[in-house]
Design goal:
Number of helices: 5
CATH topology: Rossmann fold
CATH architecture: 3-Layer(aba) Sandwich
Bound molecules: flavin mononucleotide
Helix content: 25-40%
Shape: globular
Number of domains: 1
Radius of gyration: 14 Å
CATH class: Alpha Beta
CATH superfamily: Flavodoxin domain
Strand content: 25-35%
Distance between the termini: 11 Å
Order of helices and strands: EHEEEHHEHEH
């Protein structure tokens, strides 16, 4: 299977996750990791994994614009999403907030089959090993679809 991991990142955290995912699945699939600004074509991709950090309460604009620009092409692909965030003080509303403000803008722009969604807590250029492990397990399961 051809997997394309497409991400953007300001401080490298999301990039670390993207690279860890590649490392995990590349024994079983043909995997490319590409920054959103450098994507040339999605033609060969069967599964597209999109990764974005959250800045100022939303996914990066570059990623949202990418999804809009490639909307038609993505309709024919399997798509999975991961976000990296660091919300601190939303208390019991945190899950609702993540779904409505962080995930929804991505989902709304994807008209194809969404085969997975992953939420990770990251810092500024760093992320806990546990979160990387979570990403590895998630990515591995995506190959079953
Ligand atoms: C200026 C700035 C604004 C941020 N805004 C948010 C936010 O609104 N909500 C949130 O959950 N995390 C926010 N974060 C945390 C980032 O999403 C988190 O640190 C992420 O791991 C950064 O990913 P990156 O290193 O790939 O850019 C912010 C971080 C910075 C530096």
């Amino acid at each position: 299977m051809k997997v394309c991991i497409i991400y953007d990142s300001k401080h490298g955290t999301t990039e670390k996750v993207a690279r860890a995912i590649k490392e995990t699945i590349e024994k079983y699939a043909n995997v490319d990791v590409v920054r959103v600004s450098e994507v040339k074509s999605l033609k060969a991709c069967e599964l597209v994994i999109i990764g974005t950090p959250i800045y100022y309460e939303r996914p990066l604009k570059s990623v949202l614009e990418f999804l809009e620009k490639h909307s038609e092409e993505l309709e024919k692909k399997k798509v999975a999403i991961f976000i990296v965030y660091f919300a601190i003080a939303f208390g019991s509303l945190v899950r609702w907030h993540i779904q409505n403000h962080y995930i929804k803008p991505l989902r709304e722009r994807i008209h194809g089959e969404i085969v997975g969604t992953l939420v990770l807590r990251g810092g500024i250029g760093n992320i806990r090993e546990g979160e990387i492990e979570k990403a590895r397990r998630w990515a591995f399961r995506l190959l079953d679809f």
